[in-house]
Amino acid sequence: MNTADQYLKAIYLAQRIEDGPASTGTLADLLEVSPASVNEMIGKLEDRELVDHEKYKGASLTNEGLERAHDALQTYCIIERFLANVLEVEEFKDEARALESVIDDTVAERLDTIIDRPDQCPDCFDAEEDCCELLELEASGHAD
Amino acid sequence: MSLGQRVSSDHQLTRLLQIGVVLEELVESRAAHHIESLPPDERATVDEEVEELLAEAATESADHRERLEALIDDLEAETVGYEEINALVDAQYGPPEDTDGVLYDQLANEETAYKFYDDLIEAIEASDSEFAVDRERLLETLSGIREEEKEGVEEVTAIMEQRA
């Protein structure tokens, strides 16, 4: 997943957490980058008409941005589910975060052919918990 | 969340190699399923070339898997067994409608694998980290596999073009 998609996903989640525009501070926390980096990227996303930015309020996704964020979150859900249910990784949330930048959408689509993902994905993603609220975990890990 | 493509630890490298193994197991299993899923009359008319392609893809994936497993062994980790992935494929498998569908799926397999190794190589090259497995051997193995995936894409594309 490329950096722009990671930002769009973070804005989507931050908007859900804050129930309004995503603030720079929340995005910086979610993405573990500096507020200056966030502002720079928001500017680029605004130029591409994926995000609307209002000073002192924050960033909101445009319809096109929302669509891309939705796809990015779905890719993320596939990675989390694959790690949790196929590789049976206990720390699947941390690992999904570490791996998302290296896993391409096409790779995630292939992995999706062997996981059981609910139809409403990614609406069932819990932004606060950083994982799908319907995810059932296996009893123990074996691929470590 | 981690921005920027780079592999920074043995743990992360191991996980990515394990994903590579699963992708190879998927190719192997889907190729076997494709042949079995075709109705007997269509199966008889499936070009020898396509059947050969699927058989070759399965053999090549098994070989790639072994090469990845050797690296994972050096990193002292395990992989998910083929039977387990085969069972998961079985549970969710929807057979393509016809031979063209089989070829499209095979093309997607090869392209996905190529993209995966390409990204992985780039992420390893972007990192200064030292791994428990020799970096040169690691990159040589992955580059070799990537090259074979590229040839696989070309092979499927050529057959598709012939049939068009």
TrEMBL record, chain A:
Pfam families listed in its UniProt record: Fe_dep_repr_C, Fe_dep_repress
Keyword Ion transport: no
GO molecular function, one term: DNA-binding transcription factor activity
PROSITE patterns: HTH_DTXR
Top-level division of the source organism's lineage: Archaea
Domain called HTH dtxR-type: residue spans: 1-62
Alphabetical keyword list: DNA-binding, Transcription, Transcription regulation
Keyword Protein biosynthesis in annotation: no
PANTHER family for the chain: IRON (METAL) DEPENDENT REPRESSOR, DTXR FAMILY (PTHR33238), IRON-DEPENDENT TRANSCRIPTIONAL REGULATOR (PTHR33238:SF7)
The family this protein is said to belong to: Belongs to the DtxR/MntR family.
Protein name as catalogued: Metal-dependent transcriptional regulator
Annotated organism of origin: Natrinema thermotolerans
Lineage: Archaea, Methanobacteriati, Methanobacteriota, Stenosarchaea group, Halobacteria
